[in-house]
Task: inverse folding
């Protein structure tokens, strides 16, 4: 079972060197135990572009689809047998990156 | 006829959680388990009056519910190949009998999972473990039936989609998860014990009784757990005073004014037995055990003047170390007033103002201490504030009378 773990940031500060190191260590643990699928950080929300390709011509608009104080700063995709295991991993991840996380299961 | 009805009620109390739990384990789906169990009981209501009560109602209900569940899965899988269906039916040999009790425990931990909102845990526990109907649960918490239905439907969908595991938590997680279960049961009890809302009965026995019934169930499944025993003892010792706690005119009667002869002696005795059992265990008590011990001291005194207040304060001292909440500090101060006098207690209570200014019991406590110190004007103001903030109709009646008795 795969889960999306979103990193919720409320400021534009990048991760500190200490946080970077903790995230690296956490990622290595994930990989070692086979829970790692993918992870990456995202550039600032202001770099986002909206696309609507449903019409005849695609329309491109500058900016994120939701303007809010809190935004998605990165994510993990993890593999876990059930929610209890996923929650435990996410709690470790939250500590490592020093941010709040949201955990959501993939559809299948 | 009444025998059959009694048998059905009895079976509902004894077997509902067992049937839901074993079907959830077998089919891996709470929704199917709940629906099939409800159908099995509906079938019993239709058939038992004519056919007679089966010799083993639990087995009859489990078999009937299992058939209903398989029927539903067949209907839903109509277009799926036969192979899948056969697999579903024969892949799960019946569980050995000993595993059944574990199933109920699994069910309880799933319903009280920390990834669910507290109000959802309560609703789900009352439905899946308690077997209450949706209208009963909606009425208990003053929400529309449709709202309650959605809450439970959404919870079942989340359990399935997010894969909340159907199991007893691992040993390292167990204490935290047990305390989560006990919090749900205590909230149900408290809503019955101190019902809030202008139009409800001040004490709602059906909720306190249900909370006790479910706590007894958990106690039966986890007989070694001290906090489970503590919570059951606490509930029993509070429930024992239920009828004495309310006057004929519907006013709250405080502990000191209660007719102690009206307490339920059997419940008091059972509560005391549990408290003694925990004391004998020699393990450092958790908060429910300490609260039970405090209630044990109160219920051991035949008259309020015989209360061992130094023991009560000592127990609160123990509790403060586990729980630094201002509400515990307030309750400790109330006991302290009996030991060191109202002036000493008032000094402690006044220091809690920042944290408790919005809590009616803070003002009610101050009002009482001020009254005992003959500060009538200040006492009146505190009663006014307490009445304004209180939600329980019997408590408001009590506070009004006390205020109006001031010189």
Result:
């Amino acid at each position: 079972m795969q889960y999306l773990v979103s990193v919720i940031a409320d400021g534009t500060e990048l991760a500190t060197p200490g946080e970077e190191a903790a995230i690296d260590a956490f990622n290595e643990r994930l990989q070692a135990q086979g829970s790692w699928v993918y992870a990456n950080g995202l550039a600032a929300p202001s770099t986002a572009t909206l696309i609507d390709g449903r019409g005849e011509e695609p329309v491109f608009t500058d900016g994120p689809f939701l303007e809010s104080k809190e935004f998605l700063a990165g994510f993990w995709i993890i593999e876990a047998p059930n929610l209890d295991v996923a929650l435990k991993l996410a709690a470790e991840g939250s500590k490592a990156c020093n941010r709040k996380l949201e955990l959501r299961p993939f559809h299948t | 006829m009444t025998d059959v009805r009694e048998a059905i009620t009895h079976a509902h109390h004894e077997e509902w959680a067992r049937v839901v739990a074993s079907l959830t384990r077998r089919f891996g789906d709470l929704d199917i388990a709940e629906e099939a169990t409800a159908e099995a009981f509906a079938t019993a209501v239709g058939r038992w009056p004519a056919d007679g009560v089966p010799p083993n109602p639990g087995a009859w209900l489990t078999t009937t519910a299992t058939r209903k569940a398989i029927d539903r899965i067949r209907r839903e899988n109509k277009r799926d190949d036969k192979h899948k269906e056969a697999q579903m039916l024969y892949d799960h040999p019946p569980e050995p009998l000993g595993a059944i009790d574990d199933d109920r425990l699994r069910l309880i931990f799933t319903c009280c999972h920390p990834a669910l909102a507290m109000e959802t845990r309560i609703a789900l526990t009352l439905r899946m473990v308690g077997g209450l109907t949706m209208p009963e649960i909606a009425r208990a918490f003053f929400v529309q039936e449709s709202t309650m239905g959605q809450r439970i439907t959404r919870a079942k969908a989340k359990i399935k989609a997010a894969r909340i595991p159907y199991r007893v938590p691992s040993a390292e997680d167990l204490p935290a998860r047990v305390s989560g279960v006990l919090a749900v049961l205590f909230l149900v009890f408290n809503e019955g014990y101190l019902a809030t809302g202008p139009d409800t009965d001040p004490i709602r026995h059906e909720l306190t009784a249900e909370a006790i019934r479910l706590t007894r169930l958990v106690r039966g499944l986890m007989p070694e757990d001290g906090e489970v025993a503590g919570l059951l003892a606490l509930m029993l010792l509070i429930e024992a005073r239920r009828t004495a706690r309310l006057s004929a005119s519907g006013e709250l009667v405080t502990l000191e004014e209660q007719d102690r002869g009206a307490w339920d002696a059997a419940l008091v005795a059972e509560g005391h037995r549990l408290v003694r059992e925990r004391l004998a265990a020699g393990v450092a008590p958790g908060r429910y055990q300490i609260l039970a011990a405090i209630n044990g001291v109160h219920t051991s005194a035949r008259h309020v003047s015989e209360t061992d207040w130094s023991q009560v304060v000592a127990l609160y001292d123990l509790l403060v170390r586990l729980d630094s909440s201002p509400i515990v500090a307030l309750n400790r101060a109330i006991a302290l007033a009996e030991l060191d006098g109202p002036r000493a207690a008032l000094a402690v209570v006044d220091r809690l103002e920042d944290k408790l200014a919005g809590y009616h019991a803070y003002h009610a406590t101050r009002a009482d201490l001020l009254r005992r110190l003959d500060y009538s004007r200040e006492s009146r103001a505190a009663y006014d504030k307490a009445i304004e903030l209180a939600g329980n109709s019997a408590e408001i009646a009590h506070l009004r009378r006390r205020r109006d008795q001031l010189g």
Notes: Chain A touches chain B through eleven residues (CB under 8 Å). Chain A has one domain: 2-105. Chain A has a mean pLDDT of 93.
